[in-house]
Amino acid sequence: MEKKKMSPKLRLALIILGVYLLVLLAAAVLIDGRHAEITLLGESEMTVEVGETFTDPGAQAISTGRIFGSSRKPKGLSGQGQVDTGKLGEYTISYTASVLGRETTVERHVRVVDTQPPVIELNHTEGYKASWFTGYEEEGYTARDNCDGDITGRVERTELEDRIIYTVKDSSGNEARAERLIEYSISTPSISLNGDADMTMTAAMSFSEPGYRAADSLGNDLTSYVTVSGSVCPYVPGSYELTYSITNDRGDAASAKRRVNVVAAERPEVKKPERKTIYLTFDDGPGPYTEQLLDILSEYGAKATFFVTGTDTRYSDMIGRAYREGHSIGVHTYTHDYNSIYSSEQAYFDDFNAVEQLIYEQTGSYTSLFRFPGGSSNTVSRFNPGIMSRLAAAMENMGYRYFDWNVSSGDAGETTVTSQVAENIIAGCSGKTAAVVLQHDIKNYSVNAVETVLIWGTSNGYSFEALDMTSYEAHHSIAN
Ligand code: ZN
């Protein structure tokens, strides 16, 4: 058969057409720009709460081009990147796919955040009530945060009039706040006085506070916070004011007042004796001659007065005997130490009370009679100016009676001769209706003179009596 031969022109045309088609195809592919297109499922910017589970919503990919359009899914879509929801921060997940060797990457940002505030818990003590005085005493609190843990130490506390505000922030800035209402006793507390608010007392060596109590209206006892101002001089008559007050550190205050009226004790009136009387008085004993003296007095039925001391307690039982035999017992001094007893009122009172106690032990009763050591006119006390005036007034206001003397026996230094002592006494008593004789029963020459005096007195119409609260006092002029 005859091969039909293609004309060379046709062949050339076909080749040119073929090349043209190839160039056209290549151009089409180039212009198409085929690539992968990734679409995120869900938001590209996500937030997730710390501690919660994060699930990646994923992505979809297609192959796409300008000319040939979209087509099947590209192979190899993958997500890369981890989100640690236990830790605050910003995480990135990258999704990658490729078509014809071209890679496409899309990112998703995930922020792990903390939006939960901490929790403040307040402690409550059973039965606790804030005191008006001390204010509120913190019962305790704790603060916990889901991220930061225990943040109690970061709590800020603000005390207001009737409440406390607690605030705390976690490290993400989330704030918590708690409030505690305080049941204060806002009203001022009351101070109640034991005894009368207007009281009257007889002058005494000491004032004993009848007591007081302070409480707020919730019943908190505030007594120990009360301060007392003002004072009472219990042996000087007058009107004194005591103020009991309590102030808290918020500046609130309450107070109560007490008036103490110190009045002089009533004393029986002094009566001059109707008949001639000698009051023999013996100071500074009892001593070794007191027993002999009591025997003589007993023999003559004479009464005397003993202003006793505690200087030699070996003879203290003579106080009891003298008392039982009808003699009077008065206080002189326990120590006879001028520098000590006249150093202050209190020192004098202390010394005085020591003798009173001794007398009470020996006789079963106290005495209201006394004689100042050195007499009321002494000048040995001048180291403490005015002490004798003050003591004399104080003791009288308290109901005591002090005695000086108007007959001196001279047994304190002038003489040590018995007959001279007797002469001095007799001379001093002569012509007096009431003679108060000063002797010392610790001196034997003085005790020995007593019988002569008793004989003289009895035969000259005198009676020998013991001093009492109505007796003539033979006061000297006070010189200090
Ligand atoms: Zn004396």
Defining traits:
single chain; 480 residues; alpha/beta; 6-stranded parallel sheet; 4-stranded mixed sheet; 9 helices; 22% helix; rod-shaped; binds zinc ion
Task: Provide the β-strand percentage band.
Answer: 25-35%
Unreliable residue runs: none
Mean pLDDT: 93
Q: Describe the biggest sheet?
A: 6 strands, parallel
Bound molecules: zinc ion
Rg from alpha-carbon coordinates: 58 Å
Percent helix range: 10-25%
Secondary structure tally, helices: 9
Class from secondary-structure proportions: alpha/beta
Task: Tell me the span between the first and last alpha carbons.
Answer: 182 Å
Number of strands: 26
Outline: rod-shaped
Short description, anyone?
With 480 residues, the protein is an alpha/beta fold. It is 22% helix and 30% strand. The longest helix is centred in the first third of the chain and has 25 residues, at 8-32.
